[in-house]
Amino acid sequence: VQLEIMSIPNHKACGLYSCPTQLLKCVSHIISHPLALLLNMSVAQGTHPDKLKMSKIAPVFKADDELDPNNYRPISL
């Protein structure tokens, strides 16, 4: 888990909980073991916390007229 956290690029979006990647990297040695336990439990039980299923939706401009809503696509953060 710690290796995966450290491999996240620093410029990635913060996501729903606004936790910066650099902060996660600084505390990865503290949170990696409890996080691994939670992930393993989730897989073993076949459940996923509802809060982890949520995301922020942001519009991303594609091309042409910026005033036309059809020229935007949604992305999940």
Strand ordering within the main sheet: 1-2
Order of helices and strands: HHHEE
Q: What is the arithmetic mean of pLDDT?
A: 91
Total beta-strand segments: 2
**CA distance, first residue to last residue:** 21 Å
DSSP strand content? 5-15%
Radius of gyration: 17 Å
The domain tally reads 1
Question: Structural class per helix/strand content?
Answer: alpha+beta
Sheet having the most strands: 2 strands, antiparallel
The global form is elongated
Helix content: 25-40%
How many helix segments? 3
The low-confidence runs, each spanning 5 or more residues with pLDDT under 50, are none
In short:
This protein is of the alpha+beta class and about 80 residues long.
Task: Characterize the structure shown.
The chain is an alpha+beta fold and 77 residues long. It has one domain. Helices cover 38% and strands 13% of the residues. It contains three helices and two strands. A two-stranded antiparallel sheet has the order 1-2.
Essential attributes:
3 helices; 13% strand; two-stranded antiparallel sheet; 77 residues; alpha+beta
What is the topology?
Layout: H1 2-6, H2 21-26, H3 28-45, E1 57-61, E2 72-76
